[in-house]
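Sequence in, structure out. Go.
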Amino acid sequence: MSTVASFHLTRYRARDALGAMAGLALRQRALATTPGLRFARQLGTGRGARMGLGADLCRWATFAVWDDGDALDAFEATSPIAARWRDQGRETWNVRLTPLSAHGSWGGARPLPDADVTPGGRDGPVAVLTRARIGLRHWPAFYRSVPAVEADLHHQPDLLAVLGIGEAPVGLQATFSLWRSTAGMEAFAYRGSSHEAVVRRTRAQGWFAEELFARFRPYGSTGTWDGVDPLGS
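Output:
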Protein backbone atom coordinates (compact mmCIF):
# COMPACT_ATOMS: atom_id res chain seq x y z
CA MET A 1 0.00 0.00 0.00
CA SER A 2 1.17 3.56 -0.63
CA THR A 3 2.13 6.41 1.67
CA VAL A 4 -0.74 8.41 3.18
CA ALA A 5 -0.56 11.75 4.99
CA SER A 6 -3.09 13.25 7.37
CA PHE A 7 -3.96 16.62 8.84
CA HIS A 8 -5.78 16.94 12.17
CA LEU A 9 -7.21 20.18 13.53
CA THR A 10 -8.58 20.45 17.08
CA ARG A 11 -10.16 23.41 18.83
CA TYR A 12 -10.14 23.09 22.62
CA ARG A 13 -12.29 24.83 25.17
CA ALA A 14 -10.49 27.71 26.87
CA ARG A 15 -10.22 25.73 30.09
CA ASP A 16 -8.38 22.92 28.26
CA ALA A 17 -6.09 25.11 26.12
CA LEU A 18 -3.20 25.36 28.58
CA GLY A 19 -3.25 21.62 29.12
CA ALA A 20 -3.11 21.05 25.38
CA MET A 21 -0.09 23.31 25.09
CA ALA A 22 1.66 21.86 28.15
CA GLY A 23 1.31 18.32 26.82
CA LEU A 24 2.96 18.93 23.43
CA ALA A 25 6.30 17.36 24.34
CA LEU A 26 4.70 14.27 25.88
CA ARG A 27 2.45 13.77 22.87
CA GLN A 28 5.39 14.17 20.48
CA ARG A 29 7.24 11.39 22.28
CA ALA A 30 4.12 9.22 22.18
CA LEU A 31 3.71 9.88 18.47
CA ALA A 32 7.32 8.83 17.88
CA THR A 33 6.46 5.28 19.03
CA THR A 34 3.28 4.95 16.94
CA PRO A 35 3.48 1.96 14.57
CA GLY A 36 3.53 2.92 10.91
CA LEU A 37 4.08 6.64 11.56
CA ARG A 38 6.94 8.03 9.49
CA PHE A 39 6.75 11.70 10.45
CA ALA A 40 4.64 13.95 12.66
CA ARG A 41 4.64 17.59 13.74
CA GLN A 42 2.30 19.28 16.20
CA LEU A 43 1.63 22.85 15.19
CA GLY A 44 0.19 26.01 16.62
CA THR A 45 -2.28 27.95 14.50
CA GLY A 46 -2.91 31.56 13.60
CA ARG A 47 -6.04 33.46 14.47
CA GLY A 48 -8.91 32.67 12.11
CA ALA A 49 -7.58 32.35 8.57
CA ARG A 50 -4.64 34.71 9.20
CA MET A 51 -1.11 33.71 8.24
CA GLY A 52 0.91 36.47 9.90
CA LEU A 53 1.91 37.04 13.50
CA GLY A 54 -0.54 36.08 16.23
CA ALA A 55 -1.73 32.75 17.60
CA ASP A 56 -4.95 30.99 18.58
CA LEU A 57 -3.99 29.12 21.75
CA CYS A 58 -7.23 27.12 21.69
CA ARG A 59 -6.59 25.56 18.28
CA TRP A 60 -3.80 23.08 17.45
CA ALA A 61 -2.95 21.05 14.37
CA THR A 62 -0.99 17.88 13.63
CA PHE A 63 0.48 16.90 10.26
CA ALA A 64 1.54 13.27 9.87
CA VAL A 65 2.85 10.88 7.23
CA TRP A 66 2.03 7.16 7.45
CA ASP A 67 3.28 3.96 5.85
CA ASP A 68 -0.25 3.32 4.60
CA GLY A 69 -3.92 3.82 5.36
CA ASP A 70 -4.00 0.81 7.69
CA ALA A 71 -1.49 2.48 10.02
CA LEU A 72 -3.64 5.61 10.12
CA ASP A 73 -6.76 3.49 10.75
CA ALA A 74 -5.06 1.83 13.72
CA PHE A 75 -3.93 5.17 15.16
CA GLU A 76 -7.41 6.64 14.96
CA ALA A 77 -8.96 3.53 16.51
CA THR A 78 -6.50 2.88 19.37
CA SER A 79 -4.28 5.89 20.10
CA PRO A 80 -4.89 7.87 23.32
CA ILE A 81 -3.87 10.97 21.36
CA ALA A 82 -6.66 10.50 18.82
CA ALA A 83 -9.08 9.76 21.67
CA ARG A 84 -8.05 12.98 23.40
CA TRP A 85 -8.76 14.99 20.26
CA ARG A 86 -12.24 13.49 20.10
CA ASP A 87 -13.02 13.72 23.81
CA GLN A 88 -11.55 17.12 24.69
CA GLY A 89 -11.91 18.94 21.39
CA ARG A 90 -14.75 21.40 21.17
CA GLU A 91 -14.38 20.98 17.41
CA THR A 92 -12.25 18.57 15.39
CA TRP A 93 -11.54 18.16 11.69
CA ASN A 94 -9.43 15.42 10.10
CA VAL A 95 -8.53 14.68 6.51
CA ARG A 96 -6.57 12.00 4.68
CA LEU A 97 -4.15 13.11 2.01
CA THR A 98 -2.76 11.26 -1.00
CA PRO A 99 0.61 12.83 -1.92
CA LEU A 100 0.74 14.27 -5.43
CA SER A 101 4.00 16.21 -5.36
CA ALA A 102 6.63 17.30 -2.87
CA HIS A 103 9.90 19.19 -2.83
CA GLY A 104 12.15 20.04 0.09
CA SER A 105 12.73 19.10 3.72
CA TRP A 106 11.38 19.73 7.19
CA GLY A 107 13.80 19.88 10.11
CA GLY A 108 16.40 18.09 8.00
CA ALA A 109 14.02 15.21 7.24
CA ARG A 110 12.22 14.45 4.01
CA PRO A 111 8.79 13.27 5.14
CA LEU A 112 7.67 12.91 1.52
CA PRO A 113 9.88 11.81 -1.38
CA ASP A 114 10.55 14.50 -3.96
CA ALA A 115 8.09 13.98 -6.79
CA ASP A 116 6.09 15.82 -9.41
CA VAL A 117 2.32 15.74 -9.80
CA THR A 118 1.19 12.19 -10.44
CA PRO A 119 -0.60 11.35 -13.69
CA GLY A 120 -4.29 12.11 -13.38
CA GLY A 121 -3.68 14.07 -10.19
CA ARG A 122 -4.66 17.51 -11.44
CA ASP A 123 -8.45 17.29 -11.31
CA GLY A 124 -10.63 17.87 -8.27
CA PRO A 125 -9.85 19.40 -4.86
CA VAL A 126 -6.22 19.84 -3.84
CA ALA A 127 -4.57 20.46 -0.47
CA VAL A 128 -1.33 22.41 -0.24
CA LEU A 129 1.19 22.42 2.60
CA THR A 130 4.00 24.98 2.60
CA ARG A 131 6.59 25.14 5.36
CA ALA A 132 9.68 27.32 5.73
CA ARG A 133 12.43 28.14 8.19
CA ILE A 134 13.01 31.83 7.64
CA GLY A 135 16.51 33.22 8.05
CA LEU A 136 16.66 35.56 11.06
CA ARG A 137 17.72 38.63 9.10
CA HIS A 138 14.82 38.11 6.67
CA TRP A 139 12.06 38.02 9.32
CA PRO A 140 11.10 41.71 8.89
CA ALA A 141 10.84 41.47 5.10
CA PHE A 142 8.87 38.23 5.26
CA TYR A 143 6.29 39.50 7.74
CA ARG A 144 5.90 42.79 5.88
CA SER A 145 5.02 40.78 2.76
CA VAL A 146 2.25 38.75 4.42
CA PRO A 147 -0.67 41.25 4.43
CA ALA A 148 -0.70 41.79 0.65
CA VAL A 149 -0.47 38.06 -0.06
CA GLU A 150 -3.16 37.31 2.49
CA ALA A 151 -5.54 39.92 1.05
CA ASP A 152 -5.06 38.52 -2.45
CA LEU A 153 -5.51 34.95 -1.21
CA HIS A 154 -8.87 35.59 0.41
CA HIS A 155 -10.25 36.94 -2.87
CA GLN A 156 -9.52 33.71 -4.74
CA PRO A 157 -12.79 32.07 -5.85
CA ASP A 158 -11.34 28.54 -5.68
CA LEU A 159 -10.04 28.81 -2.11
CA LEU A 160 -12.01 26.55 0.24
CA ALA A 161 -10.09 27.11 3.49
CA VAL A 162 -6.67 28.23 4.70
CA LEU A 163 -4.81 28.13 7.98
CA GLY A 164 -1.54 29.61 9.19
CA ILE A 165 0.40 27.04 11.22
CA GLY A 166 3.85 26.88 12.77
CA GLU A 167 6.24 25.29 15.24
CA ALA A 168 7.16 28.62 16.82
CA PRO A 169 5.59 32.10 16.99
CA VAL A 170 8.09 33.43 14.42
CA GLY A 171 10.61 31.99 12.02
CA LEU A 172 9.13 28.51 11.53
CA GLN A 173 6.05 29.19 9.48
CA ALA A 174 3.69 27.05 7.44
CA THR A 175 0.30 27.15 5.76
CA PHE A 176 -2.28 24.50 4.99
CA SER A 177 -4.86 25.34 2.34
CA LEU A 178 -7.67 23.59 0.48
CA TRP A 179 -8.62 24.48 -3.08
CA ARG A 180 -11.51 23.58 -5.33
CA SER A 181 -9.10 22.92 -8.20
CA THR A 182 -5.41 22.83 -9.07
CA ALA A 183 -6.02 25.45 -11.75
CA GLY A 184 -7.43 27.86 -9.20
CA MET A 185 -4.54 27.29 -6.83
CA GLU A 186 -1.95 27.76 -9.57
CA ALA A 187 -3.62 30.96 -10.77
CA PHE A 188 -3.03 32.45 -7.32
CA ALA A 189 0.45 31.02 -6.87
CA TYR A 190 2.05 31.77 -10.22
CA ARG A 191 0.07 34.12 -12.45
CA GLY A 192 0.81 37.73 -11.63
CA SER A 193 -0.34 37.73 -8.01
CA SER A 194 1.34 39.28 -4.99
CA HIS A 195 2.29 35.73 -4.02
CA GLU A 196 4.26 35.29 -7.23
CA ALA A 197 6.13 38.54 -6.54
CA VAL A 198 7.02 37.38 -3.03
CA VAL A 199 8.23 34.02 -4.38
CA ARG A 200 10.58 35.87 -6.72
CA ARG A 201 11.95 37.95 -3.83
CA THR A 202 12.30 34.82 -1.70
CA ARG A 203 14.46 33.17 -4.35
CA ALA A 204 16.50 36.24 -5.20
CA GLN A 205 17.23 37.23 -1.60
CA GLY A 206 17.44 33.79 0.01
CA TRP A 207 14.79 34.31 2.69
CA PHE A 208 14.36 30.63 3.51
CA ALA A 209 17.01 28.50 5.20
CA GLU A 210 14.81 25.43 4.58
CA GLU A 211 11.52 24.85 2.80
CA LEU A 212 8.98 22.20 1.93
CA PHE A 213 6.15 22.45 -0.60
CA ALA A 214 3.70 19.60 -1.05
CA ARG A 215 0.38 18.98 -2.80
CA PHE A 216 -2.15 16.31 -1.93
CA ARG A 217 -5.46 14.90 -3.04
CA PRO A 218 -7.69 15.26 0.07
CA TYR A 219 -10.23 12.55 0.86
CA GLY A 220 -12.09 11.02 3.79
CA SER A 221 -12.55 14.22 5.79
CA THR A 222 -14.50 14.07 9.06
CA GLY A 223 -15.69 16.68 11.53
CA THR A 224 -15.85 20.43 11.04
CA TRP A 225 -13.50 23.36 10.62
CA ASP A 226 -15.09 26.61 11.84
CA GLY A 227 -18.48 24.95 11.80
CA VAL A 228 -18.35 23.31 8.35
CA ASP A 229 -16.44 20.66 6.46
CA PRO A 230 -14.77 22.71 3.69
CA LEU A 231 -14.60 19.61 1.51
CA GLY A 232 -18.30 18.90 1.96
CA SER A 233 -17.66 15.22 2.70
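Check: The chain has seven helices and eight strands. The chain has a mean pLDDT of 86.
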